[in-house]
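Blinded run. Sample ID left blank on purpose so nobody reads anything into the name before looking at the predicted structure. Input follows.
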Amino acid sequence: MKKRTFSCIVKSATTTTIERGPLMKDIISALTMKELEQITYRALQESFSQVMAQTLQEIDEAIASERDKQRFYLKDKRTLKFESVFGQVELKRNYYQDKETGKYVYLLDQYLAFDGTKGMSPVVQDLAIELAVTGVSYRQAGKAMEKLLGYPVISHEGIRQQLLNTEVVPEESVPLEQDVVFVEVDGLYTKSQEKKKKGKEIKIASVHQGWEMNGKRAKLIEKRHFIHEGNLPFWEEFEQYLMATYEYDPTRHHLVINGDGAKWITSCRDHFQHNATFVIDRFHVARDVQRLFRGHSRYRSIRKKLASYDWEGFMVELNSAVGTLENEKKEERLEELIAQLSQYPEALGDYREKLKERGIDTTGFRPMGSAEGTMSVFARRLKNGRSWSDKGLDKFIDIMVALKDNLEIKTLQGILEQTQELIQESKEEKPPKHFVEKLKESAAEATRNNLGYLKQAIGKPITDALKGLRGI
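Blinded prediction complete.
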């Protein structure tokens, strides 16, 4: 009796050659598309786990036959069990004693740059860390992986420990293409896990070299993030970062610094003096103006002065509005705003005009103001009721910045590769043809007879075959 293939069954079920009747009704009622997809996916996971185990065993055997037998003594075989994107993989691998060092090693692990004692594959580890940093929380990252892979892979505490055991590799200096460097600065307050300890303000600067247009959208050039973690004053440590990262020369390069009126931010004027132009963050000023004057008769004219960079006219409008708000708290806030902006009213002007006066070409320069967007990205992950230990917070921010800036990250399993990089590399670099063919053959062998209804006789009702899938 001939066997029918899966493709034949599906094809025949979707053509008009099957008569509508009890058989078709049984097919429709027996299994939903969602169930069929889930069952098939689980079956393929199991099959590919077998392929992975078989491939690893063959590599281990090749290593054993070609090793330096005078140096590496084959002691015995020991179990390797780890979680992968296919599911759990288990096999026996060779365990050796290195006669030169006296240590016991797994040559398979060494050849593949993989630590089998950690219980997970490098891809699973990288995915866990990336989801934890770019997602909502460690717990949600664990749940997301469980939903994606179909089984609980790693706990939220396991993900946290993986992240704590990472290290960011400092990058080589980035050359500066022009004499102007753009800096957006802001602070973010985080809570401490210790009850009697105050929270911590994270001082963040994003640095870039200008803008490039992609259609109507502007992209920041060579954007990097600096987190103040040392004991030196912010701007002193930031200047050292610039010298190490951007080949910054204080005698040549000019900084355009955008931030709110916090004292630690405005102190950049004293630190850099004529080598920097401070720009007050217009988002915060516009927000204060809206809160104070919305519905007020002067609101429109004040907004126009601010939007046109007429800082003198803007300050006149603010001062002339004193006493017209009819709200004591708003009057107090207005006086505070005037006192704050009066320290550096020129910071409300267009920085490009100031650079032109210095003889700097400002072609392609755009208004500053990406600090708030940068802080919102960090705030979504660091705030929202979360509290942190000092060690956990510092490490998390380091990895978050490294992922954003595409820096190299060392993990327990080697070098972390981000998802998009893996996708790009898979397009650019292909493994050896003979290796791909070998895996295809192994996959075909492993999946053969693995789905219940592939072994059904042609006369057997299709519904019984589909119901058999439920038992996999």
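Unblinding after everyone has recorded impressions. The first helix runs from residue 6 to 13.
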